[in-house]
């Protein structure tokens, strides 16, 4: 086969000396790829057309492997053109005597496609994160919705089961909220719910769970909070809420029902539903006893 026939191959062909690195042969495709004439390439060193990083990789990793096995496949490297453009190629290398036979393919479109795929994946991940966050939040208040809060509470209880930390469950319900809607309209009601949510959020720590549990009902789970802590906390909440002012509505009060996580047995499976039910019973009593107050489920327990 003569050189003219080798020029017909639709890939980059190159022959170089293993020890000196001198290029002995280069086909037409390879010359066009690096943008040089045959005179500029043949007789020169491969280091003139291979990037420094590729050369270091070749010397330290590929050469020993080629010496041991006689070949190396799918070598990813970068060629540097006469215009100093860096172009990715994929090479197979075979050793015959002192000479290395290279066949290379441009990996430009493959790398571009790969890059595009990475960008699409990154933006999809970002979108998924945004959607996951959105699906966890209540749109009016930006607090956790009931479903997300339940999931977070289950995780928290799993943790507390392993290493006990006192936890308080608070159900908070706006008193006579229907009157606000009836007197001022639903929009004003929404504004009250939004402002109250901000107050609740501001009054909690990162480790607590704050959620919109229902229409005008909120759930706060206080992590590392004893019953005495919860009592002080609820007093603080009533005070903060009494201080709140609304542009178009009257002041509001809330009723709070609280339950405390009992010290768990090692194997106890804690039921979120049971704890919520206890807090709900206490809230019902708070409403029954005149509203604008906190009732503890444990107070009732002590009497039984
Ligand atoms: N504006 C507004 N109102 C809501 C929303 N969700 C629930 N509500 C209203 O909240 C009111 C709750 O009324 P009730 O359950 O009778 O309770 P209440 O008037 O707060 O009285 P007590 O809880 O017994 O103190 C209802 O009128 C609901 O329509 C909401 O997202 N926005």
UniProtKB/TrEMBL annotation:
A molecular-function term among this protein's GO annotations: diguanylate cyclase activity
Reactions the enzyme catalyzes: 2 GTP = 3',3'-c-di-GMP + 2 diphosphate
InterPro entries noted in UniProt: Diguanylate_Cyclase, GGDEF_dom, Nucleotide_cyclase, PAS, PAS-like_dom_sf, Rev_trsase/Diguanyl_cyclase
Enzyme class: transferase
EC number: 2.7.7.65
Ranges for domain GGDEF: 165-299
Gene3D superfamilies: 3.30.70.270, PAS domain
Cofactor(s) it depends on: Mg(2+)
NCBIfam families membership: GGDEF
Protein name: diguanylate cyclase
Organism: Alteromonas naphthalenivorans
């Amino acid at each position: 086969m003569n050189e003219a026939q080798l020029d017909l191959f639709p890939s980059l062909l190159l022959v170089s000396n293993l020890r000196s690195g001198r290029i002995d042969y280069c086909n037409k495709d390879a010359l066009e790829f690096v943008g040089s004439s045959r005179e500029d390439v043949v007789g020169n060193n491969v280091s003139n057309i291979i990037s420094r990083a590729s050369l270091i990789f070749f010397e330290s990793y590929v050469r020993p492997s080629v010496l041991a096995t006689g070949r190396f496949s799918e070598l990813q490297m970068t060629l540097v053109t006469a215009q100093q453009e860096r172009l990715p190629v994929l090479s197979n290398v075979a050793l015959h005597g002192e000479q290395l036979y290279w066949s290379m393919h441009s990996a430009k479109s493959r790398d571009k496609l790969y890059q595009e795929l990475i960008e699409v994946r990154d933006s999809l991940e970002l979108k998924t994160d945004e959607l996951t966050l959105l699906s966890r939040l209540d749109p009016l208040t930006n607090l956790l919705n009931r479903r997300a809060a339940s999931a977070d509470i289950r995780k928290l209880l799993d943790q507390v089961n392993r290493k006990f930390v006192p936890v308080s469950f608070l159900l908070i319900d706006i008193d006579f909220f229907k009157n606000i809607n009836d007197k001022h309209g639903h929009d004003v009601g929404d504004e009250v719910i939004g402002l109250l949510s901000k107050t609740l959020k501001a009054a909690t720590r990162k480790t607590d769970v704050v959620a919109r549990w229902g229409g005008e009902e909120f759930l706060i789970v206080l992590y590392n909070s004893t019953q005495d802590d919860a009592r002080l906390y609820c007093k603080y909440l009533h005070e903060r809420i009494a201080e709140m002012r609304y542009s178009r509505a009257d002041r509001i009060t809330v009723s709070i029902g609280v339950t405390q996580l009992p010290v768990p047995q090692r194997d106890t499976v804690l039921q979120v539903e049971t704890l919520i039910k206890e807090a709900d019973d206490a809230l019902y009593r708070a409403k029954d006893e005149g509203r604008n107050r906190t009732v503890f489920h444990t107070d009732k327990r002590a009497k039984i």
